[in-house]
Design goal:
2 strands; mainly alpha
């Protein structure tokens, strides 16, 4: 993939980032470096490597998952900037 000014501006728009024009050349270089490093992983010889979930040969002991209902809705609502009918109101982010 080729990274250019148009690509950087497009990604910045998707991420809702404001970037300055003088920062674009550095961002192009940085993105190209990251993509080259990711592409170099394709050259690793992994034919005889078995898939694994955990690099250790041990079983992970997990705690029992217990659901606990904490009745702190009023406490949290009191510190929220704005609520409506028990729901938190947040500013619109996505246009």
């Amino acid at each position: 993939m080729t990274v250019n000014e148009k690509t950087v501006k497009f990604i910045a728009e998707l991420a809702n980032f404001r970037i300055e024009n003088e920062d674009i050349p550095g961002l192009v270089t940085g993105m190209e470096t990251i993509l080259e490093m990711a592409a170099s992983m394709n050259e690793a010889k992994t034919n005889n490597v078995l898939p694994m979930l955990n690099p250790l040969d041990e079983t992970q002991i997990l705690r029992e998952d217990k659901a606990e209902e904490l009745k702190q809705k009023d406490k949290f609502s009191s510190i929220a900037p704005e609520t409506l009918e028990g729901l938190y109101l947040v500013p619109k982010v996505v246009e």
